[in-house]
Amino acid sequence: MSKITEGKKRFVKRALRNENPTILIGKSGVSSESVKEIERQLEKNKMVKVRVLRTALLNEDTKQIARRLSEQTGSNLVEVRGHTFMLYKARNA
Q1: What is the pLDDT of residues 30-85, one digit of tens each?
Q2: 47 DSSP 8-state letter
Q3: Closest CA to 24 of 55, 45, 46
Q4: What is the CATH number that goes with domain 6-88?
């Protein structure tokens, strides 16, 4: 996983600013299916916006979930804002 530049962070934030989250993490927490779906969307679009519902925040906070998903998918954590976060993964050349 390579480090993301500030310019790329700005690009991703701008691109996803008005988009609705495409992945919702609910009371069952982070499942293997949600990790696979995030990986699929990252492969297709290079970026994904994820929302963590309040029911999923019993044992961890949003930042912890975002960091763990970033590590599991090999992507870069762009931003955590409230219960929503963005991930970016450059395509392999």
Answers
A1: 889 999 999 999 999 999 999 999 988 888 899 999 999 999 999 999 999 999 99
A2: E
A3: 55
A4: 3.30.110.60
**pTM for this structure?**
0.91
Asked if residue 49 lies in contact with residue 84, where contact means CB atoms within 8 angstroms, the answer is yes
Measured in whole angstroms, how far is the alpha carbon of residue 67 from the centre of its chain?
9
- Rg of the chain in Å (alpha carbons): 12
Give the burial class of 16: count Cβ atoms within 10 A of its Cβ; 0-12 exposed, 13-18 middle, 19 or more buried. buried
How do the domains of the chain map onto residue ranges?
6-88
What's the CA gap between 64 and 90, in Å, rounded? 22
